[in-house]
Design brief:
Number of helices: 5
Strand order of the largest sheet: 1-2
Order of helices and strands: HHHHHEE
Structural class: mainly alpha
Strand content: 5-15%
Largest sheet: 2 strands, antiparallel
Radius of gyration: 25 Å
Shape: elongated
Length: 170
Amino acid sequence: MGKILLLLFTVVPLVELYLLLALGRLMGFGPTVALVLVTGIVGATLAKHEGLRVVRRWQRDLSEGRVPEDGVLGGLLVFAGGLFLVTPGVLTDAFGLAMLFPPTRHLAVGAIRKRVERGVKSGRVRVQSFDGGQVMSWSSGFGGRQDVIDVEGEDVTPPPPALPPAEREE
Protein backbone atom coordinates (compact mmCIF):
# COMPACT_ATOMS: atom_id res chain seq x y z
CA MET A 1 0.00 0.00 0.00
CA GLY A 2 2.92 2.31 0.67
CA LYS A 3 4.14 1.97 -2.91
CA ILE A 4 0.73 2.93 -4.26
CA LEU A 5 0.58 6.02 -2.03
CA LEU A 6 4.11 6.97 -3.07
CA LEU A 7 3.03 6.69 -6.70
CA LEU A 8 -0.14 8.71 -6.17
CA PHE A 9 1.41 11.54 -4.20
CA THR A 10 4.78 11.93 -5.92
CA VAL A 11 5.01 10.36 -9.36
CA VAL A 12 1.54 11.36 -10.65
CA PRO A 13 1.94 15.06 -9.71
CA LEU A 14 5.38 15.13 -11.33
CA VAL A 15 4.01 13.63 -14.55
CA GLU A 16 1.09 16.10 -14.44
CA LEU A 17 3.51 19.01 -13.99
CA TYR A 18 5.63 17.81 -16.90
CA LEU A 19 2.57 17.48 -19.15
CA LEU A 20 1.26 20.94 -18.19
CA LEU A 21 4.65 22.50 -18.87
CA ALA A 22 4.84 20.71 -22.23
CA LEU A 23 1.33 21.98 -23.09
CA GLY A 24 2.42 25.46 -22.01
CA ARG A 25 5.37 25.35 -24.39
CA LEU A 26 3.18 24.03 -27.19
CA MET A 27 0.08 26.22 -26.74
CA GLY A 28 1.37 29.09 -24.63
CA PHE A 29 0.73 30.13 -21.03
CA GLY A 30 -2.72 31.69 -21.47
CA PRO A 31 -4.36 28.83 -23.35
CA THR A 32 -2.89 26.29 -20.91
CA VAL A 33 -4.29 28.16 -17.89
CA ALA A 34 -7.64 28.51 -19.71
CA LEU A 35 -7.65 24.77 -20.42
CA VAL A 36 -7.07 23.99 -16.74
CA LEU A 37 -9.84 26.38 -15.66
CA VAL A 38 -12.32 25.14 -18.27
CA THR A 39 -11.75 21.47 -17.42
CA GLY A 40 -12.24 22.29 -13.74
CA ILE A 41 -15.52 24.14 -14.33
CA VAL A 42 -16.86 21.66 -16.90
CA GLY A 43 -15.75 18.76 -14.70
CA ALA A 44 -17.53 20.09 -11.64
CA THR A 45 -20.70 20.65 -13.67
CA LEU A 46 -20.56 17.20 -15.27
CA ALA A 47 -19.88 15.55 -11.91
CA LYS A 48 -22.87 17.29 -10.36
CA HIS A 49 -25.24 16.29 -13.16
CA GLU A 50 -23.98 12.71 -13.39
CA GLY A 51 -24.03 12.36 -9.60
CA LEU A 52 -27.65 13.52 -9.48
CA ARG A 53 -28.53 11.13 -12.30
CA VAL A 54 -26.94 8.23 -10.38
CA VAL A 55 -28.85 9.17 -7.22
CA ARG A 56 -32.16 9.38 -9.13
CA ARG A 57 -31.48 5.95 -10.69
CA TRP A 58 -30.74 4.50 -7.23
CA GLN A 59 -33.98 5.96 -5.90
CA ARG A 60 -35.97 4.56 -8.85
CA ASP A 61 -34.40 1.10 -8.54
CA LEU A 62 -34.93 0.97 -4.78
CA SER A 63 -38.54 2.16 -5.06
CA GLU A 64 -39.16 -0.66 -7.56
CA GLY A 65 -37.63 -3.18 -5.14
CA ARG A 66 -34.43 -3.74 -7.15
CA VAL A 67 -30.81 -3.46 -6.08
CA PRO A 68 -29.09 -0.58 -7.96
CA GLU A 69 -26.99 -1.92 -10.83
CA ASP A 70 -23.66 -0.41 -9.80
CA GLY A 71 -24.50 -0.16 -6.12
CA VAL A 72 -22.62 2.37 -4.07
CA LEU A 73 -19.42 1.79 -6.01
CA GLY A 74 -20.74 3.57 -9.12
CA GLY A 75 -21.58 6.63 -7.03
CA LEU A 76 -18.14 6.62 -5.43
CA LEU A 77 -16.52 6.49 -8.86
CA VAL A 78 -18.62 9.47 -10.02
CA PHE A 79 -17.46 11.36 -6.92
CA ALA A 80 -13.83 10.38 -7.57
CA GLY A 81 -14.19 11.41 -11.21
CA GLY A 82 -15.44 14.83 -10.15
CA LEU A 83 -12.52 15.24 -7.76
CA PHE A 84 -10.04 14.29 -10.47
CA LEU A 85 -11.62 16.71 -12.93
CA VAL A 86 -11.27 19.70 -10.61
CA THR A 87 -7.66 18.73 -9.92
CA PRO A 88 -5.38 20.48 -12.45
CA GLY A 89 -3.72 18.05 -14.79
CA VAL A 90 -4.05 16.07 -17.99
CA LEU A 91 -3.98 12.52 -16.60
CA THR A 92 -6.38 13.33 -13.77
CA ASP A 93 -8.78 14.94 -16.26
CA ALA A 94 -8.70 11.83 -18.47
CA PHE A 95 -9.39 9.57 -15.50
CA GLY A 96 -12.12 11.89 -14.21
CA LEU A 97 -13.91 11.97 -17.55
CA ALA A 98 -13.67 8.19 -17.82
CA MET A 99 -15.40 7.82 -14.44
CA LEU A 100 -18.22 10.18 -15.42
CA PHE A 101 -19.18 8.32 -18.58
CA PRO A 102 -21.39 5.32 -17.76
CA PRO A 103 -19.74 2.79 -20.15
CA THR A 104 -16.23 3.25 -18.76
CA ARG A 105 -17.57 3.52 -15.20
CA HIS A 106 -19.38 0.17 -15.62
CA LEU A 107 -16.10 -1.39 -16.78
CA ALA A 108 -14.33 0.00 -13.71
CA VAL A 109 -17.09 -1.25 -11.39
CA GLY A 110 -16.82 -4.72 -12.95
CA ALA A 111 -13.04 -4.77 -12.56
CA ILE A 112 -13.22 -3.65 -8.92
CA ARG A 113 -15.98 -6.17 -8.17
CA LYS A 114 -13.88 -9.01 -9.68
CA ARG A 115 -10.87 -7.95 -7.64
CA VAL A 116 -12.89 -7.92 -4.41
CA GLU A 117 -14.42 -11.32 -5.26
CA ARG A 118 -10.92 -12.75 -5.84
CA GLY A 119 -9.86 -11.24 -2.52
CA VAL A 120 -12.79 -12.86 -0.74
CA LYS A 121 -12.00 -16.25 -2.32
CA SER A 122 -8.30 -16.00 -1.41
CA GLY A 123 -9.01 -14.79 2.12
CA ARG A 124 -7.46 -11.32 1.74
CA VAL A 125 -10.91 -9.75 2.10
CA ARG A 126 -13.16 -10.87 4.92
CA VAL A 127 -16.58 -9.64 5.89
CA GLN A 128 -17.50 -10.04 9.53
CA SER A 129 -20.86 -9.32 11.11
CA PHE A 130 -21.29 -7.74 14.51
CA ASP A 131 -24.89 -7.39 15.74
CA GLY A 132 -26.20 -7.12 12.18
CA GLY A 133 -23.63 -4.53 11.07
CA GLN A 134 -21.08 -5.34 8.40
CA VAL A 135 -17.38 -4.71 8.85
CA MET A 136 -15.04 -5.29 5.92
CA SER A 137 -11.36 -5.91 6.49
CA TRP A 138 -8.94 -5.69 3.58
CA SER A 139 -5.40 -6.87 3.20
CA SER A 140 -3.93 -5.26 0.10
CA GLY A 141 -1.60 -8.07 -0.89
CA PHE A 142 1.10 -5.49 -1.69
CA GLY A 143 3.32 -6.46 1.19
CA GLY A 144 0.95 -4.77 3.62
CA ARG A 145 0.17 -6.25 6.99
CA GLN A 146 -3.27 -6.81 8.40
CA ASP A 147 -3.54 -6.69 12.16
CA VAL A 148 -6.43 -8.50 13.77
CA ILE A 149 -7.67 -7.36 17.14
CA ASP A 150 -9.77 -9.99 18.88
CA VAL A 151 -11.93 -8.66 21.69
CA GLU A 152 -14.77 -9.96 23.79
CA GLY A 153 -17.63 -7.67 24.65
CA GLU A 154 -19.67 -7.39 27.80
CA ASP A 155 -23.11 -5.80 27.99
CA VAL A 156 -22.88 -2.96 30.51
CA THR A 157 -26.40 -1.63 30.01
CA PRO A 158 -27.85 -0.96 33.47
CA PRO A 159 -30.98 -2.94 34.34
CA PRO A 160 -34.26 -1.05 34.35
CA PRO A 161 -35.12 0.47 37.73
CA ALA A 162 -37.21 -1.70 40.00
CA LEU A 163 -40.69 -0.42 40.60
CA PRO A 164 -41.60 0.16 44.25
CA PRO A 165 -44.10 -2.34 45.68
CA ALA A 166 -47.68 -1.19 45.37
CA GLU A 167 -49.29 -0.04 48.60
CA ARG A 168 -52.21 -2.15 49.69
CA GLU A 169 -55.41 -0.66 50.87
CA GLU A 170 -57.13 -2.70 53.56
